[in-house]
Specification:
Strands 1-2-3-4-5 form a five-stranded mixed beta sheet, with helices on both faces. The chain is an alpha+beta fold and 134 residues long. It is 28% helix and 32% strand. The chain has two helices and five strands. The protein has one domain: Trna Endonuclease, Chain: A, domain 1, CATH 3.40.1350.
């Protein structure tokens, strides 16, 4: 096995971060096309980040963005399991308390982005109310 062979190369943290940022940019553009107003990106709370905070009408939407370069290891939505869901809800609740949004309608969406290796357009999927809101 030749370690220089791209088929055997593992993506490093910088590659994953760049992919994640590109995915977040595409997710934000997708949401804006749907009429959402982006009010925050990579919002830091409780030693964690909320990828996107948006308004859908009068509803505050916390958006988790999951990006992958392929689906060989499953769909990106599959990476938002019960532990990740609890963490996102915890971060959303902290954001709600910090910004005094307790009287607002809230939901959590997941946007997935799959980047095709052959230069095809990325596939963006939006899962509204993906799991129980805080």
């Amino acid at each position: 096995m030749d370690r220089r062979d791209p088929e055997h190369r593992r993506d490093g943290p910088d590659d994953r971060d760049a992919l994640g940022r590109k995915g977040e940019d595409l997710a934000a553009k997708h949401l804006q096309r749907l009429g959402y107003r982006i009010v925050g990106r990579r919002e830091r709370v409780l030693r964690g980040d909320i990828d996107i905070v948006a308004l859908d009408g009068r509803t505050v939407v916390f958006v988790e963005v999951r990006s992958r370069s392929d689906t060989r290891h499953g769909h990106p939505a599959e990476t938002v399991g019960p532990v990740k869901q609890r963490r996102i809800a915890e971060l959303a609740n902290a954001y709600i308390r910090r910004h005094r949004l307790q009287d607002c309608q809230v939901r959590i969406d997941v946007v997935t982005v799959i980047f095709a290796a052959d230069g095809e357009a990325p596939i963006v999927e939006h899962f509204e109310n993906a799991f129980e809101s805080p």
